[in-house]
Amino acid sequence: MTETLDIQITKTTHSRLQETDFDNLPFGKIFSDHMFVADYADGEWKNFQVIPYGEIGLSPAISALHYGQAFFEGIKAYKHADGKVVIFRPDKNAERFNKSAERLCMPTLPEDIFLQSLAAVVDIDRDWVPTQDNHALYIRPFMFATDPFLGVQPSATYKYMVLTCPVGPYFSKTLRVKIETNFTRAAEGGMGFAKAAGNYASSMLPGKTAVDEGFDQLIWTDARDHAYIEEMGAANAMFVLDGKLVTPSTQSTILKGVTRDTVIKLAQEWGVPVEERRVSVAEIVEGAKNGKLTDAFGAGTAATIAPVGSISYNGEEYFLIDPKEREFSQKVLKTLNDIKYGVIPDTHGWNFPVGE
Ligand SMILES: *Cc1c(COP(=O)(O)O)cnc(C)c1O
């Protein structure tokens, strides 16, 4: 097995736990007491530390700021009724972390360092893992380039860090979405499959434009023809069409979501036919018109299962059935939650216990 990582721990002298209102948690704004930091230099990872959450000093010339050598992950930890804390499928995120690193010409991080860093921050702040329904501790591992050098080339030094935030549900309502036919998120050969910071920078203007038009979210289409569905905001797009679970296959333009993978595995176990393939805008619009589209949702760690209420395309809005009446997404959401919160046995080995 793996060696225990030598992590130097410095505890905070002033916990903010008591002054935090757990009934009012805006997403990603409240940070727990500690964070994890490690440095990459001379070709290796070193200086593994857990320190109080706070500002860090950096040169204004670091290449992450100028050329965007930066990427992240998003994971959640859940508290069970008996006080046990688990992290959901972090091994999948470790794998994706390194795919992002390779695409951005950044160093990979051994899976056991990744997993032990998460366990260390979650364990030290386990009292920050919320206990309310649908709440969790959001875990944000990330890496960025730290060479103070304005030349366009891969940095030789990097920082790897992990922050955690107690969070409530991400979306509280059914989403009004539009199919985007102007902007593009990713093209073949680009970095759509990586959780690269730059992908989110380029999505902000399209996202804001959609919100200004009265939508909650947009559905990305392919860069060439805008005729095939790719993703829904920063979540994977999933549909039930004609009784089958249909979702775009993960070529290089699509981020391979852990939630997407989990939903597919559950569907397969339930005997629901699954199709991972090119999904045309035309068939989704047609299904919305003729009633064969019985379910549509975004799947992601932050949003979990976010039901789509209506889809707009070329100025026409198509309404779907009431989310409460959708058999598949209701069942998948309940099963996912029951596994994560330890209500039913975790027969897949998806929950990684912390501090045992
Ligand atoms: C993070 C993310 C997802 C969802 O991935 P999960 O592993 O399920 O959280 C989907 N699409 C994009 C673009 C993302 O950034």
Automatic annotation (TrEMBL):
<dbReference type="Pfam" id="PF01063">
    <property type="entry name" value="Aminotran_4"/>
</dbReference>
<comment type="pathway">
    <text>Amino-acid biosynthesis; L-leucine biosynthesis; L-leucine from 3-methyl-2-oxobutanoate: step 4/4.</text>
</comment>
<comment type="similarity">
    <text>Belongs to the class-IV pyridoxal-phosphate-dependent aminotransferase family.</text>
</comment>
<keyword id="KW-0028">Amino-acid biosynthesis</keyword>
<keyword id="KW-0663">Pyridoxal phosphate</keyword>
<dbReference type="InterPro" id="IPR043131">
    <property type="entry name" value="BCAT-like_N"/>
</dbReference>
<protein>
    <recommendedName>
        <fullName>branched-chain-amino-acid transaminase</fullName>
        <ecNumber>2.6.1.42</ecNumber>
    </recommendedName>
</protein>
<keyword id="KW-0032">Aminotransferase</keyword>
<dbReference type="InterPro" id="IPR001544">
    <property type="entry name" value="Aminotrans_IV"/>
</dbReference>
<keyword id="KW-0100">Branched-chain amino acid biosynthesis</keyword>
<dbReference type="InterPro" id="IPR033939">
    <property type="entry name" value="BCAT_family"/>
</dbReference>
<dbReference type="InterPro" id="IPR043132">
    <property type="entry name" value="BCAT-like_C"/>
</dbReference>
<dbReference type="InterPro" id="IPR005786">
    <property type="entry name" value="B_amino_transII"/>
</dbReference>
<keyword id="KW-0808">Transferase</keyword>
<comment type="function">
    <text>Acts on leucine, isoleucine and valine.</text>
</comment>
<dbReference type="GO" id="GO:0008483">
    <property type="term" value="F:transaminase activity"/>
</dbReference>
<dbReference type="InterPro" id="IPR036038">
    <property type="entry name" value="Aminotransferase-like"/>
</dbReference>
<comment type="pathway">
    <text>Amino-acid biosynthesis; L-isoleucine biosynthesis; L-isoleucine from 2-oxobutanoate: step 4/4.</text>
</comment>
